[in-house]
Design the sequence.
């Protein structure tokens, strides 16, 4: 099974986003560097707007991820409610 990942800047704005991603993806692993947080997952990774909103207590537009996005790996499927990374098999 192929691994997908997303790497975000390590800052206060991404902390609740990272917590939400890890809560929704129990198989994900995290690597923290001084300026970057990389989240790897086998097969697929789902980022849910509702989970981020639960963490922040405020409305969140998934397009806001791009402000702190460093890189990602995988095919991207995106709606207003979810961003999914996966590899086609």
Sequence:
């Amino acid at each position: 099974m192929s691994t997908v990942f997303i790497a975000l800047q390590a800052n206060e704005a991404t902390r609740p986003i990272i917590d939400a991603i890890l809560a929704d993806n129990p198989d994900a692993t995290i690597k923290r560097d001084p300026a970057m947080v990389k989240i790897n997952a086998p097969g697929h990774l789902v980022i849910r707007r509702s989970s981020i909103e639960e963490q922040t207590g405020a409305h969140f537009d998934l397009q806001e991820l791009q402000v702190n996005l460093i890189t990602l790996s995988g095919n991207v499927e995106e709606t207003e409610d979810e961003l999914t990374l996966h590899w086609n098999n």
User: Anything to note?
Assistant: Strands lie at 3-9, 29-32, 36-42, 44-48, 69-73, 75-78, 82-86.
